[in-house]
Design goal:
Length: 245
Amino acid sequence: MINDGRALYLDYSERLKQPGDLEPIIASFFHEDALINIVHPFNQINGPKVYLEHFFLPLQNSLRGLYRRDDIFMVGEFEGQKWISSAGYYVGQFKNDWLGIKASGNLSYLRYGEFHRIGNDRAVESYIFLDIPELMIACNQWPLDIGPGHSRGYTGLIQGPASHDGVLKENCDPKEGKLSYQIVTDMLANLATKNEAWRPYWHKNMMWYGPGAFGSFIGVEEFAHSRFHSSPNLKDGQEGQRIMV
């Protein structure tokens, strides 16, 4: 069996489903010299020890009973490298302030998306996205009076895939994977074009699951209006390209 990191991540994910002392599993998931890139204000972190000190333990202290759930998980190869991708939510009772966000005292969800490059059965390079604006909006602490978070789409808890098959524990057809990758890549290349050349890639009743500050939308027309008519920065193709990529 090819060691693609699947077993490594599934064990990591299973352990994170329950509150408790999660330091050992986190320390064993990341290589000791792993480059871990997290959204601002964390940025680049070197190794699991700093990851724990700067990110995870403060989050665990703020969200009482912290655990997380994966709604999407997949393994694949990109340019000869093994990668793992997952998305879901950290969940807990927001008891202590975090990153300047005042604790609400309520059940709270922090959406994440992660990409991990696997080497020697450890994560050696990671990119971790956190929807901090969504948490701020949920706590009624969005700092702007106008713009994203107030006048865009739905912001809140997003369900996992309707087919309930987002966690891919078994091997998938590599040909289907390459086809999906190419379709998405081609769509992205057309996403910020003035003639909306992205439209053929989407079903008319598609769902766009956007980040908290922009929101989520149902249907191609709602997506088009929100992304390309509500924001002056996205009306120009070149400017939009810099923003979207």
